[in-house]
Write a structure and sequence with these properties.
The chain has 3 domains: about 5-60, Nucleic acid-binding proteins (OB fold (Dihydrolipoamide Acetyltransferase, E2P), Beta Barrel); about 90-120 and about 225-385, Rossmann fold (3-Layer(aba) Sandwich), CATH 3.40.50.150; about 125-215, no CATH class. α1 packs across α8. With about 375 residues, the chain is α/β, with parallel strands linked by helices. The chain contains 8 helices and 21 strands. α5 links the parallel β16 (about 265-270) and β17.
Length: about 375
């Protein structure tokens, strides 16, 4: 038994889901936050279980080849970033390893050759959640704690959010979401603005020339530059004006993908259970689409779901597709399926099912929406053989 409090020597092999490094101590897996592949560490065990231990770094004996000095002075204390101690190239390599490992381990298939689309490593994040401290300064939660960490600057925030956070205060103790956008066409450079939950009910953003409205407190993608690279992949093969018959945008949110699909199909179905989001989809998606405010599982039993679709887009929550949705896809067999995922493990599970049901992988790519963190956004394009 490796008791808590013991200092052990561990070599870090790779990064695992969640961002910890993993090595082995006395034959057991040892998870170490803020460690890098190739590190040789002295680490203190903080939690000991029969088949694994968790430890914190005491001393870095030999740094791994991808280790760098973090840019942010709050790194390690802040609960946001957890890969800033890796070079950006090492982060991309680690994320590719996570996706490929999940695909082989959970999806039971070696047919996906993932590529990765890099982001700007810093200054990319358009959306963040803050909590104001006793003086009203915005801050984040400390790592592993509910305590508040105030900050003077945050290098991952997009400039409008960074500028707002440096110069504004909020009601002490209040939690709120903020969304920042750069200057839009016709506005002066540097005149981007921040939308603040509780102050601004609604926010707007421009993606590939289209304007989108959404609730400031609701969900919209947090890296607008990467959204503009993901959208063309999702609609690949169905260009504007080249009319396919029908498409379905499931888990459509405020209509981000649907807005770019509407000009390519004679019929477009947008389905979303969150009523506020589907209300915005009705505004953001050009006229001619139909909208259903219901659970996707319920929609799969509707008469509309029995139609033939050339393209189905799914962007499910972290848990992935439910059994009813997977079964519907196995029967519906659209010509193409675009699967956008925020969790490589649930994606791999669903991919294994789809491949068994007769789908084949046409392309697989990671989109690095969240540099300096272990979060992974993926897009896999399936076709029916």
């Amino acid at each position: 038994m490796i008791e808590a409090g013991r200092v052990v020597r561990v070599g870090i092999e790779r990064i695992v889901p969640g961002g910890d490094g993993i090595g082995r101590v006395d034959g057991r897996a040892c998870f170490v936050p803020l460690s890098a592949p190739g590190d040789l560490l002295e680490a203190r065990v903080v939690d000991s279980r029969p088949d694994y231990v968790r430890a914190e770094i005491v001393d870095l004996l030999e740094p791994g080849p991808g280790r760098v000095e973090p840019r942010c002075p709050h790194y390690g204390a802040c609960g946001g970033c957890n890969l800033q101690h890796l070079s950006y190239e090492a982060q991309l390599e680690a994320k590719l390893g996570l996706a490929r490992d999940a695909w082989l381990r959970v999806g039971r298939s070696a047919e996906a050759d993932f590529t990765i689309e890099p982001s700007a490593p810093f200054g990319y994040r358009n959306r963040a959640q803050f909590r104001a401290d006793a003086s009203g300064r915005p801050g984040y939660a400390r790592r592993g704690s509910n305590e508040l960490l105030a900050f003077d600057s945050c290098p991952i925030l997009a400039e409008p959010l960074e500028r707002w956070a440096r110069s504004h205060t909020a009601e002490p103790g209040r939690r709120f979401v903020a969304f920042g956008r750069d200057a839009e066409p016709g506005e002066a450079p540097g005149s981007g603005r921040a939308y603040i939950e509780g102050v601004d009910d609604e926010a707007t953003a421009v993606v590939l020339g289209r304007s989108f409205r959404f609730a400031t407190a609701g969900f919209f993608q947090s890296n607008l530059a990467m959204v503009e690279r993901l959208v063309p992949a999702v609609r690949s093969g169905f260009s504007e004006g080249a009319k396919g018959d029908a498409a379905a945008d499931l888990y459509c949110g405020v209509g981000l993908f649907g807005a770019f699909l509407s000009g390519s199909f004679r019929r477009l179905v947008c389905v979303e259970q969150e009523r506020r989001s589907i209300g915005y989809a009705c505004v953001n998606v050009p006229r001619g689409a139909s909208f259903s405010a219901m659970r996707i599982e319920d929609w799969t039993r509707s008469a509309q779901a029995r139609e033939r679709f050339d393209l189905v887009v799914v962007d499910p929550p972290r848990s992935g597709l439910g059994p009813a949705v997977r079964s519907w896809l196995a029967e519906a067999r659209p010509s193409a399926l675009s699967y956008v995922s925020c969790d490589p493990v649930s994606l791999a599970r669903d991919a294994g099912f789809l491949i068994d049901a007769g789908y084949a992988v046409e392309s697989a790519a990671l989109y690095d929406f969240y540099p300096q963190t272990a979060h992974i956004e993926s897009h896999v394009r399936f076709r029916v053989d």
